[in-house]
Specification:
The strands form 8 sheets. Strands 1, 2, 5, 6, 9, 11, 13, 14 and 15 form a 9-stranded mixed β-sheet that branches. An 8-stranded mixed β-sheet has the order 26-27-25-24-31-35-34-33. It has a 5-stranded antiparallel β-sheet with strand order 21-20-19-22-23. The relative contact order is 0.07. It is globular and about 105 Å long. It is mainly beta and 640 residues long. Helices cover 15% and strands 44% of the residues.
């Protein structure tokens, strides 16, 4: 390994994992039951970029008085010097502990003498009391891995779900059962007048273990692809969570309905039936204002959103009682949206909370209950026979348009009604990324351009635009537009926000927008707008393409030509359709007197494209983005 200069399977690799071995087993100490994860890994460094693997950062949790710890750390770095193997050892007393947040501690280890060509080796034991949510075993990393091997020794009194990777084959060995004799010592302290005393009791017990083992070989490095819903979900790993136990400690995790029943008890513990009694007068006014449930729901939605600001924290429980949350005007996601649920019910609009995970953190799996996945909540209201998903945590989303973070395919309902509690519900975006640009410009004889531009943002395009502009001033925004395009200047800027629309208008002038070659000039109207690069250029796709919502783009440009120029050839019209109405693209140029009408219509309706559908999507995008290479050619008229 020390003599190796490159990795033949992937010559671009900066390093690779020679072997990554883990064993998780259960134990106990004088405090409580626990598990220990032993890890032993060896890494070969190939390039300068791989030197970072000599800096080891281990994350541990410290929650409610229970703290994970790292023990038995050993680290070595091997180098080849003058034909001899030289070993540099790490001293455990040099571990640096750093607090990352209220609940997270980082153990930082900097291994010595790491160079290009080194082999790094380290091992440690993670000790944890969090039996209900063990650490995952990561199989795939940012560098290739020759062997990943994991053994799980679980007491038969506990039942676990182990979720294997979707896009990587992992071999599981036949399971075994082993009986293990354990010895325990208990210290009982007593005291007599004037002196302390203690007794030690020794006990033995036999533990029945189910042993499962997985192995993956020649695991490629994880390559990030555009438009995925969750990187953590795609990276190959073994995800472990407890489902139940023989002593009943974790029986609530045996099904989604039992998990949500437990969440309901905790959500309303101590608040009783009159949880919003302090808000009775305001809610009564809304209740009596209209018989229309949609009207009442919108009034309640605005009341909650304007009063209680989301503090940016995810959670599965309230942080405080409803009155305290209302008075301090802020709270976590459950504080906000469970308050919305309770207020809707108070005005006669039936509503429940829907738990889920945020987009980017993995999807809920109906067949595998996992309480750790429930970190987000939205309201589901019954209005005129329809289930409407509402989320009051965003300042810029309109009614029914939930934030992108909540668009994670499905959620599970929490209710006191046993027929509803634990049911799954599909989450469908109720809007698109909708952008409409209209321009009316003229090309002057000096080949400069002047005209008017109007942009209408709708749906998620409006949300994204408002969130971006909320962080900068109008002056900074206009300056950023001018800096993107050489020779552009903007004047008479105005904007207005109406319901689900945001409209901006301005006068624009641009120099150097047109290329002149001899007596011909070449002009592409798309150069006047900010068009992103094609995200789908790779030949094949390993993972599905997942858009959070549909896309609509409509561009209509009216271009007045110089009096002494004419069009050589009008570009041919283009129309492309995706199967099953998945998308549509249309391009057309027409001429009227000395004016050109340039129209582009791009519509994407299908949100998920499987790898086998990627070629259709790739071709669709290539046709659309090819417009950036199709200029309109003008030629100077000959004088009579």
């Amino acid at each position: 390994m020390l003599e190796l200069k490159s990795f033949t399977q992937d010559t671009s690799a900066i390093a690779f994992i020679v072997g990554d071995y883990g064993e998780m087993a259960f134990d106990s100490d004088a405090t409580a039951s626990m598990y220990r994860l032993k890890k032993h890994i060896r890494i070969k460094v190939l390039k300068n970029g791989g030197l970072k693997y000599g800096n080891v950062i281990l994350k541990t949790y410290d929650i409610n008085g229970f703290r994970e710890s790292i023990s038995s750390f050993e680290g070595r770095v091997y180098n080849l010097e003058n034909g001899e193997i030289v070993t540099s050892k790490f001293k455990s007393k040099e571990i640096i502990e750093e607090k990352n947040s209220d609940d997270v501690l980082l153990e930082k280890i900097f291994l010595p003498n790491v160079k290009v060509g080194s082999v790094i080796e380290y091992s440690y034991v993670l000790n944890s009391y969090f039996l209900g949510n063990p650490h995952d075993w990561n199989i795939q990393h940012d560098i290739p891995c020759l062997v990943s091997d994991f053994t799980f020794k679980m007491p038969q009194s506990l039942r676990f779900n182990v979720i294997t990777p979707r896009y990587l084959t992992v071999y599981e060995f036949p399971s075994e059962v082993m009986n293990q004799q354990r010895s325990y010592s208990t210290i009982v302290r007593t005291s007599k007048i004037g002196r302390p005393n203690q007794k030690i009791y020794h006990e033995k017990t036999e533990l029945s273990l189910l042993i499962r083992r997985w192995r993956a070989e020649n695991v490629p490095s994880y390559v990030l692809e555009p438009f995925i819903s969750s990187e953590e979900e795609l990276k190959a790993k073994l995800k472990i969570n407890i489902s139940s136990s023989s002593n009943g400690m974790f029986d609530y995790a045996n099904s989604w309905s039992s998990i949500l029943e437990e969440k309901y008890k905790l959500a309303y513990k101590g608040v009783g039936e009159n949880k919003l009694k302090f808000l009775k007068d305001k809610l009564e006014l809304i209740r009596n204002q209209s018989e229309d449930k949609l009207v009442k729901a919108k009034l309640v939605f605005e009341l909650v959103r304007s009063r209680i600001k989301w503090n940016g924290e995810y959670s599965s429980l309230r942080s405080a009682a409803p009155k305290e949350i209302y008075n301090k005007r802020s709270g976590n996601v459950i504080d906000v949206n469970l308050f919305l649920v309770d207020a809707l019910n108070q005005v006669g609009v039936s509503a429940v909370l829907m738990y889920g995970n945020i987009r980017g953190r993995g999807k809920l799996i109906q067949s595998i209950p996992d309480v750790s996945q429930l970190i987000y909540g939205t309201a589901v209201a019954s209005i005129d026979g329809e289930k409407v998903v509402l989320d009051a945590t965003s300042e810029f989303t309109s009614f029914e348009l939930i934030p992108q973070r909540a668009l994670n395919y499905q959620g599970v309902l929490m209710s006191s009604n046993k027929h509803v509690n634990g049911q799954f519900m599909e989450v469908i975006p109720q809007g698109k990324d909708d952008l409409n640009i209209r321009m009316k410009v003229e090309i002057n004889n000096d080949l400069s351009i002047k005209g008017e531009k109007s942009i209408t943002y709708k749906g998620y395009a409006r949300v994204n635009f408002r969130e971006y502009c909320d962080e900068i001033s109008e002056e900074e925004y206009i300056t950023s537009l001018e800096e993107k395009v050489i020779g552009l200047s903007i004047s008479d800027y105005s904007k207005k926000d109406i319901e689900d629309l945001h409209i901006e208008e301005y006068v624009m002038e641009r120099e150097n927008a047109i290329e002149k070659v001899g007596s011909k000039i070449f002009f592409n109207p798309l150069n006047l707008i900010d068009v992103a690069e094609n995200p789908f250029i790779q030949e094949q796709r390993m993972y599905p393409v997942e858009f959070p919502y549909g896309i609509d783009r409509r561009y209509i440009f009216q271009i007045e030509l110089p009096q002494n120029y004419d069009v050589v050839n009008i570009p041919s019209s283009i129309q492309v359709m995706l199967p099953n109405n998945g998308g549509r693209f249309k391009f057309q140029v027409s001429k009227y007197e000395n004016k050109l009408i340039y129209m582009v219509d791009f519509e994407l309706n299908q949100l998920v494209f499987l790898p086998e559908e990627y070629s259709n999507l790739k071709l669709f995008y290539e046709k659309a983005f090819s417009l950036q290479t199709i200029p309109i050619e003008l030629v100077q008229k000959k004088e009579n």
